[in-house]
Amino acid sequence: MTSWQRFLIGILTIFLGVGGWVVTPSSAAGNHPLEGRVFVVDTGRSGEGPSGRDVYCFREGKFLSTFHNTQHDFPPGPYTGHRVGDVIHFAADAQSPTRGSIHWEGTIRGEIINAAFFWRDTPRWYSWHNGPAKYWARSAGWGPTTSSGPDIAASHLLDGQVYFVKTGEKGNPPDHSDYLIFWEGRFVSSACVELNFSPSAYSAIEKDGTIRFHAEIRSPNRGRMTWRGTVRRNNTEGTAEWHYKRLFWEVVRHYWFRGPVYSME
Q1: pLDDT digits (tens, 9 = 90+) for 200-212
Q2: Distance in angstroms (rounded) separating the CA atoms of residues 152 and 166
Q3: Greatest CA separation for the chain
Q4: d(C-alpha 132, C-alpha 107), whole Å
Q5: What is the CATH number of domain 19-139?
Q6: Which residues, at least 6 apart from 74, have a Cβ–Cβ distance to it below 8 Å?
Q7: CA atoms of 198 and 244, how far apart (whole Å)
Q8: Contact 66, 74 (CB under 8 A)
Q9: How many other β-carbons are positioned within 10 Å of the β-carbon of residue 15?
Q10: What is the pLDDT of residues 201-247, one digit of tens each?
């Protein structure tokens, strides 16, 4: 980046005020201290308690918030990061065609992330305040890393893979999208994270070019979900079985899922 380009970015930042941040793809592409990392976070409005959960992924030089992607159409955006001692400082930006822009900035120490993000939503005639809203994000933890099935030992066979799947109840068309993420021997469903399910260890075996995996995730108030699937030629499909209690009986709901490896492009 030339001195003239830095000068122009500085002028734009001053002109735009809060919310006028710039993270350029070229700077992100050359600096990847977080490449491949995954974090489950609690989030909330600044000054308030937690109001939701999200999954943050750093892949292919891009940053992805699974919640803002599936719920508000924010695609992955470039990120930058640099290390100071044992702390990594990062910044990222994403732009939605309908919901404005979000800027994230924060620190990561080991497995702990602390961040703030500033959401400048698309102006609306009925809104009295169109400035950026400030939120916080902090590590929610991965939960236990026990094996998810007694028959197969915990595996790392699918580590680093992210699949973007369509899913729906058995016999019905798809009703939502989900990210299935495998990281350090653990499995996470982004849609289930939003429902307070914790990531869990997964098991997997490969035979004749097909990988079969199994995971069981649990929530303190939403029961448990058992996931079984196959991976072949960069595509996954399978089933999820949700068990939860309602008054004096247990409800079981059956789902299907299907989708390809997710690309940040």
Answers
A1: 999 999 999 999 9
A2: 27
A3: 69
A4: 21
A5: 2.40.128
A6: 65, 68, 94, 95, 96, 99, 102
A7: 15
A8: no
A9: 8
A10: 999 999 999 999 999 999 988 999 999 999 999 999 999 999 998 88
